[in-house]
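Margin note from the TA: students keep mixing up input and output lines. Inputs are the sequences; the output is the structure of the whole complex. Example:
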Amino acid sequence: MLQLTTDSNWTELGKYIIKTEHDIVQVRQLIRVHAKEMNMGIIDQTRVTTAVSELLRNMYNYGGGGEVLVETGVVDDKNALIITCADEGSGIEDLDLAMSDGYTSGMGMGYGLPGAKRLVDRFEIKSEKNIGTTVRVMKWR
Amino acid sequence: MKEDYKIERVKERINYIEDVLASVAAGDIDARINSEVEDDLSGIEAAIDLLIDDLTDELKQRKKMQKEVEEKLAKIQEQQKTIFQQQSDLLELSSPVSKVWDNVLILPVIGTLDSQRTQIMMENLLEKIVETGCTISILDITGVPTVDTQVANHLLKTVTAARLLGTECIISGISPAIAQTIVHLGIDLSSINTKATLQDAMIYAMKQNQLSENVKLHSLFADSDENEE
Ligand SMILES: Nc1ncnc2c1ncn2[C@@H]1O[C@H](COP(=O)(O)OP(=O)(O)OP(=O)(O)O)[C@@H](O)[C@H]1O
Ligand SMILES: [Mg+2]
């Protein structure tokens, strides 16, 4: 089992619950605000917001909703905005398949996970069948 | 004998006090002792009446407050209902399709494109295409802050559906940040005719219009030429 990077020195900026499609929109806007407050430029703001949007949608579509934790801290000597999305849904059986371009088990385009990975500086995913999925993304500042 | 009688009287009065207190406890806030005699016991009776007064005052106050809170809550719920109503109204209002000039429809999209809105937007656009017979439509997304795979998917579907009705659908207003993001996501929008700004899209539409006008004129002259021969 993969381990997610953690550090007790990170500062929590917010914790949000995703239950409805409206929550996705609201939390996504908050992520943009956090990115802006960390002085990220418009391009980085858009990238991290879009990446998180993908994770929130997956959480809503396949995980039955979940929880989002927004933190800031130092990772590998870099200031980072750290967003963790955790759900207790069905989990992903084949992570390699799920992470590949164009794979969807539903009606999507299959670019959510691999696309999100390309939009951030660090992407970590941990998933266990019938237990849930946690994705942690980081954007350097 | 006289002492016995006195004790009996006092017992009765104490029983009465107990009855009154029990009544108050049971919710009868108007119960009072209202003693008519003046003696050692009447001081206590008056004090108890005063206490009951205070208590019932407080009770009435609290009931009033509770009623006020309930009224306010009902009002807030009413307002919330109105907001939900307005939101769904806005949903429809915010997909205004208009014919800007001959043959060209414009649909400016503002805000978030969730599935519900996209559905309404797509229906509005397709209806208008059929209604007006326009062959070019411009979908302007300058006002859309985030384009993720789902939004891109919706856009692709809308363009495809419009194409099936014989209309070219141009997407305009893709900011540099969003363009970069779409590329990183890996979504291929090359099958769609995209323009950076609404103005670019309109100039393009105008040119297309002139082109087809010219073709029409051309074939018209070609026809008459044939007739003359
Ligand atoms: N949180 C999750 N829980 C369970 N399964 C998931 C989760 N996230 C992704 N998956 C699975 O991984 C697949 C790929 O996800 P990805 O986001 O790349 O594509 P998609 O959601 O199907 O389509 P798109 O994101 O392009 O609209 C999904 O189809 C789904 O089967
Ligand atoms: Mg997805």
